[in-house]
Amino acid sequence: MLTVRNVASGYGRSQILFDMSFEVGAGEAICLMGRNGMGKTTTIRTLMGLLPPWEGRIEFAGQPLSGLPAARVARQGLGLVPEGRQVFPNLTVHENLRVAAANRQDHADPWTLDRVYSLFPALRERSKSYANLLSGGEQQMLAIGRALMTNPRLLILDEATEGLAPVVRDQIWACITALRGLGQSIIVIDKHIQRLSGIVDRFYVVEKGRVVWTGDPERVLREEQTVRAFLTV
After folding, report:
1. In terms of domains, do 221 and 164 share one?
2. Are 39 and 57 within one domain?
3. Cα 96 to chain center, whole Å?
4. So what's the pLDDT on residue 88?
5. Are 215 and 33 a contacting pair, CB within 8 Å?
6. Residue 220's pLDDT is what?
7. 176 within a domain of the structure (yes/no)
8. How far, rounded to the nearest angstrom, does the alpha carbon of residue 139 sit from its chain's CA centroid?
9. pLDDT number for residue 233
10. Beta carbons of 39 and 20 less than 8 angstroms apart
């Protein structure tokens, strides 16, 4: 579904990505891991058209994404849950979800308000509350629900469990597991190896703007000490 090959990108004169390459198949979930500042979020921003790729190739469902503006990338079926949640603070939960509603890919069973509320019952209870009054965990659920309302072919979660209490993390991971069961293709940026090993198909470790290690859950658990060496300072 998604192919990223030898992508270079950055900000101004500062190059962050040097040779980024990975892929996501239809119905697969992958995880990008790495220390802060290694290029994970820059990779996502480049995928989403928020940063132009300097070199390399990005294809989605056989079509080139490189150079497309963010709005056109989103219309192709990429849905982003950004780092820091970035919900609309002065809109209610209901309004945050409604404003994103779209079914551009003509899914037979699209995401609706009721489906999102079934996935996150806490949002139904807070549907009339303004987003800035929600807890961090509720805001993260809202950010995921808002992305799902676009009915994405590929869902991207950038640090979706960062800063959340363990019980809320479990809820987010349970949500990702449920989405996998529905055949949703997913990219997760996270660092919790043990928990993610039961969810994703492949891990990619990012170091200085390129993938330096990749493996399936069995390999990541077998070589966990090696992987953790890339994740610690």
Report:
1. yes
2. yes
3. 18
4. 95
5. no
6. 93
7. no
8. 15
9. 65
10. yes
| 39/93 same-domain check | no
pTM surpassing 0.90? yes
> Rounded mean pLDDT of 34-47?
94
- Judge if 160 and 224 occupy the same domain: yes
Q: Tens of pLDDT along 194-216?
A: 889 999 999 999 999 999 999 99
Q: For 134-168, give the DSSP string.
A: S-HHHHHHHHHHHHHTT--SEEEEESTTTT--HHH
Helices (H), the chain: 40-47, 70-75, 93-99, 113-119, 121-125, 136-148, 166-181, 193-196, 217-222, 224-231
Q: If you count them, how many residues does the chain have?
A: 233
HSE-CB of 77 using CA atoms within 13 angstroms: 19
CATH label of the domain that carries residue 202? 3.40.50.300
- In a domain, residue 175? The reply is no
Q: Is residue 180 part of a domain?
A: no
Nearest to 203 by CA among 184, 222, 177, 178: 222
| pLDDT tens track for 148-167 | 999 999 999 998 888 888 89
Asked if the structure places residue 53 within a domain, the reply is: yes
Same domain, 161 and 233: yes
DSSP assignment letter at 84 = T
Domain containing residue 146:
83-152
